[in-house]
Write a structure and sequence with these properties.
By secondary structure, the chain is α+β, with helices and mostly antiparallel strands. The chain contains two helices and nine strands. It has helices at residues 3-31, 152-165, and strands at residues 47-60, 77-84, 87-92, 98-101, 105-111, 113-114, 117-118, 124-132, 135-143.
Amino acid sequence: MSREGAVLITAAIAVVILVAMFLGWRRRLRRDSGLSAPLGVPEHAEVTARHEILYVATTQHDQPLERLAITPLAYRARGELVVTDRGAALSLDGSPTVFITSSRLVTVDLATVAIDRVVEPNGLIRLVWRITDDLLVDTFLRHASGGPQQILPELEALCASSENGEQL
């Protein structure tokens, strides 16, 4: 086989792979088009903490390798996690602010693996929250400048306030 033939076969295989990836992502976008993240922040929410984060992914609950393409949480991004007295806001670069009220938060814990990220043990923060009344999702965050232990108590307090006063 000539060198040109090998190059053409390699290029054809690469094109087939890219087309398959594109079609798979479009199918995922259609599948998840009925889901949307809650946008905006309540007017009188009191900010209690701010943290620079890397948003990793939102997945189906307890399925860290099954990414959901929820607008605006479909892609990895840098941003800021703002903890308020009413919930947590994700202000991701280039996207509208997603606000997860404490009544939607089910639990917060640590994880090691998400769809496109493997880190040191317990290096990711996992927010488990209700996107609809009957559907739980996991959102994975990575603290940009420190360990997740700085953020975890603040988010756990939101879950506790939800359990003590608000209905899930």
